[in-house]
Design a protein that fits this description.
This protein is α+β, with helices and mostly antiparallel strands. It folds into 2 domains: 138 residues, Immunoglobulins (Immunoglobulin-like, Sandwich), CATH 2.60.40.10; 208 residues, no CATH class. The chain has 5 helices and 24 strands. The strands form 6 sheets. A 5-stranded antiparallel β-sheet has the order 3-2-5-9-11. The chain has a 5-stranded mixed β-sheet with strand order 8-16-13-19-20, with no helix packed on it. A 5-stranded mixed β-sheet has the order 23-12-18-17-24. Strand 14 and strand 15 form a beta hairpin. Helix 1 packs antiparallel against helix 2 and helix 4 packs across helix 5.
Length: 395
């Protein structure tokens, strides 16, 4: 058990947010060595009982599941909480007879999330850490919106529910079984922007999405209502020089034909002949269904100069081009599971959550003369340049 504690402490010290995670782990280690501990100390005054925790994964993709799940048990009558790390499918635990508010979540995942407020159920929060970045004239931070990092993966599983430990309802010789049903509360949105000139001159791309929630209150099952701007750009972009000539898959062609029946005809709008950019961003989701949302895309040219376009907000005017599609992607339609309804929206919307016309907003000229963006070192929404991936450009 002592080796297990050392391992847990070691893992919590790695990665970003060391100080926060260390404090969080230190708070959690106290009850681990209290009288509720099931291995280190015997405590005759503690009437703990054996239970079996079962974690159900329903239809969750196997490749996204964590190796361990962290459990927190808050007794309704107050007192110290009980915490434990269990294997993915659960395991044995010892708990006092009590009514609990119980939370199960992936604390050690590689999703880049930080945690705070574990002392009370209402305060237990997972959040994306702050991220600093420089901005140009079309990427200035919105008033009151901090900038935060994008989650590293699109999976953070959690479940909170009331749990009763009452052995009177258990037959002699049986073990009380307690159940969790974790669900992923992160969301990955995909987007496509067509009608872009100068795609072949792009070396890197990055972006920012405003109006997003940067944190999730685990026990309350609520997003933070304070809007933040999520910066994204470590891979995920695809640039296509000529949308008409690109070798789309049959599924993609069918999707775009449903969205825009004449897109593949010679007489269709010129914007379909120019370049396309596709990408994705990860987030807990928008703070609500009314706060305006701005999507900003920045291109760094081969000459290391910056060019930026924005949708949802441009030159002092808001519109619902991004907000309406984000809401449709979240709610979906038709029948079936939430994910099936969301897939229905993507199929209807050209295979993406968000599809936008460039309207001449993002262009990278062949020759960088008086570029609209900042010169190198003066700006750009990009962060972590060393971790960038070149944007794949397809002819």
């Amino acid at each position: 058990m002592m080796e297990q504690l050392k391992s847990i402490f070691s893992r919590g010290m790695s990665g970003n947010g060391t100080a926060i995670k260390s404090a969080f782990l230190a708070a959690f280690l106290v009850p681990l060595i209290s009288c509720t501990n099931r291995e280190l100390y015997a405590c005759p005054d503690c009437e703990t009982l054996p239970v079996q925790v079962i974690i159900h994964w329903q239809d969750a993709p196997q490749e996204s599941l964590p190796e361990f799940m962290h459990t927190v048990w808050y007794p309704s009558r107050g007192g110290e909480r009980t915490v434990a790390d269990l294997k993915r499918d659960g395991g044995p635990e010892r708990l006092a007879q009590e009514h609990y508010t119980a939370a199960c979540f992936d604390y050690y995942g590689e999703n880049g999330l930080e945690f705070r407020g574990s002392d009370t159920p209402a305060g237990l929060e997972a959040y994306t850490p702050a991220e600093s970045g420089l901005y140009n004239r079309y990427g200035d931070p919105l008033p009151g919106e901090p900038t935060v990092a994008e989650p590293k993966t699109a999976a953070f599983y959690t479940h909170t529910c009331p749990q009763d430990v009452d052995m009177e309802s258990v037959a002699p010789g049986d073990t009380l079984k307690l159940h969790f049903y974790p669900e992923n509360v992160l969301r990955e949105f995909t987007f496509l922007i067509h009608g872009i000139k100068g795609v072949k001159n792009m070396a890197y791309n990055s972006g920012a999405i405003s109006g997003m929630s940067a944190s999730y209150f685990i026990v309350r099952n609520q997003l933070s209502r304070s809007p933040s701007t999520v910066l994204f750009g470590n891979g995920g972009f695809r640039a296509i020089v000529n949308g008409r000539a690109y070798s789309w898959s049959r599924e993609e062609r069918e999707a775009f034909s449903r969205l825009n029946p004449d897109w593949d005809n010679e007489a269709s709008a010129d914007c379909w002949k120019d370049g396309w950019i596709t990408g994705r961003f990860r987030t807990f989701g928008p703070v609500d269904g009314q706060t305006p949302i701005r999507l900003t895309i920045e291109a760094v040219s081969n000459a290391n100069l910056y060019y930026t376009g924005a949708w949802g907000y441009w030159k002092g005017a808001w519109d619902e081009s991004v907000l309406s599609q984000v809401q449709s992607a979240l709610l979906g339609s038709g029948e079936g599971t939430v994910e099936e309804r969301r897939q229905w929206w993507r199929q209807r919307n050209g295979g993406y959550d968000i599809v936008l016309d460039n309207f001449g907003r993002l262009e990278v000229p062949d020759v960088d003369v008086n570029p609209p963006g900042p010169t190198p070192g003066e700006g750009g929404i990009n962060v972590g340049v060393g971790g960038w991936e070149s944007t794949p450009v397809y002819e």
